[in-house]
Design goal:
alpha/beta, Cytidine Deaminase, domain 2, 6-stranded mixed beta sheet, 5-stranded mixed beta sheet, 14 helices, 15 strands
């Protein structure tokens, strides 16, 4: 098959719409179920590249959760802790948590509000445990190199039989030159085939030179994630997964703040105050996510004052004070931070420090590099200059 007609483009008024191969060759994908759309395929193809590279770089199964052509989460298949299973709402599942199931639980769970209605990419053949996790999440579709027969049947039952399931040829290699049109004008460039491996972080420019292997894995996850995130972008990572992604901001510090706030929320979800929230049994997972976001936010006093808690909790929860939150956040350490371009000011490092960052990777090349390095030294951070920008548009 050389082309696939789509219902419409980015919006319903943008017709006709299709994906197709120019010249020789067939499309490297098969639609096994549903009718994926234009944006679905953009998410699928960007996400597939991300997980394929993560698998190659780490040797571990990888998964990503995409929304609007940027990842909401990305992870490799490291074993989850019991607390992580609780905050990702998978602790009640009676399944074997395979490496792929761990990877998707992490990718989906880090920023559950952003992942709501995601498009999933999996580096490996989708197994039954992973399919069972996907089955109960709100999601538009999935792309993988294959599906176990039972897993495929589980996924086909989603969305009343309309769940989009795409199988991609794992051996497909695109042309070295890529093109796109904007306003009737064709843009052409060489594909970004930069390899991010263990040597990507060799140039450590700070007084602290120690970047352990676990942090190198996290920095690898951060940088590969940024390679497929709309720029400007910054990514915080810890424990084999992205925990905060700031995408598409015009200002670098706004990226760092946005991603940092998401990383903070990920850590605050693990606090006793949040883990012990007395939810009503009837409250669904998505509504719990929304309630937790309010609970750890600055406006929760207003929610309590309005009496809304009665519709969510069995009893009125104690306020999670600013001082209590800060004390809990101070326990988060060893976080890695990647940036797709250089940090122009030390304020980014100061903000990152508040979210437990110890390891940093960025291209370098700012006229204020010395100030950024000095700020890292002040906080005993180890920072590597990669020398390579990773803009993605």
């Amino acid at each position: 098959m050389k082309e696939l007609e789509l219902k419409y483009g980015c919006n319903p008024n943008q017709k006709p719409s299709r994906i197709f191969m120019e010249g020789e060759g067939e499309l490297p994908v098969q639609v096994l179920n549903g009718k994926p759309g234009y944006i679905n395929f953009l998410d699928a193809f960007n996400g597939w590249q991300l997980v394929k590279e993560l698998k190659k770089a780490t040797g571990l199964p990888a998964a990503t959760s995409f929304k609007h052509v940027s990842p909401a989460g990305a992870a490799v298949g490291l074993t989850m802790t019991d607390v992580e299973k609780r905050i990702y709402w998978v602790d009640d599942l009676d399944i074997e948590f395979t490496p792929l199931a761990n990877a998707y639980s992490r990718a989906r769970g880090a920023d559950r509000m952003s992942s709501f209605g995601d498009f999933i990419s999996l580096s490996d053949v989708c197994d039954v445990p992973t399919a069972k996790i996907i089955r109960r999440e709100v999601s538009d579709g999935v792309i993988a190199p294959g599906y176990e027969p039972e897993a495929l049947e589980i996924l086909k039952a989603k969305k009343k039989g309309n769940y989009a399931i795409i199988q991609i040829d794992p051996d497909y290699e695109p042309e070295k030159i890529e093109r796109k049109q904007v306003y009737g004008i064709t843009f052409e460039q060489g594909r970004n085939e930069l390899v991010i491996d263990e040597h990507f972080f060799d140039n450590v420019v700070t007084e602290n030179k120690e970047i352990p292997e676990s942090a190198k894995i996290d920095l690898t996850i951060a940088m590969i994630t940024l390679k497929y995130t709309q720029s400007n972008s910054v990514c915080y990572a810890k424990g084999g997964q992205a925990i905060g992604i700031g995408a598409g901001q015009q200002s670098r510090i706004h990226c760092t703040r946005l991603a940092g706030s998401k990383a903070d929320n990920w850590w605050l979800r693990q606090s006793p105050q949040v883990l012990n929230l007395p939810f009503l049994d009837t409250i669904k997972r998505a509504d719990r996510d929304n309630a937790i976001d309010l609970y750890i936010g600055e406006d929760y006093m207003d929610v309590l004052a309005d009496g809304e808690w009665e519709h969510i909790f069995k009893e009125k929860p104690a306020v999670f004070t600013r001082e209590e939150k800060r004390a809990w956040l101070d326990k988060n350490t060893g976080v890695s931070l990647g940036s797709d371009a250089f940090f122009p000011f030390g304020d980014n490092i100061e903000r990152a420090f508040k979210s437990g960052v110890t390891y940093v990777a960025e291209p370098g090349g700012s006229i204020r590099d010395d100030h950024v390095i000095e700020t890292c030294n002040k906080h005993n951070m180890a920072m590597a200059f990669t020398g390579i920008r990773l803009f993605h548009h």
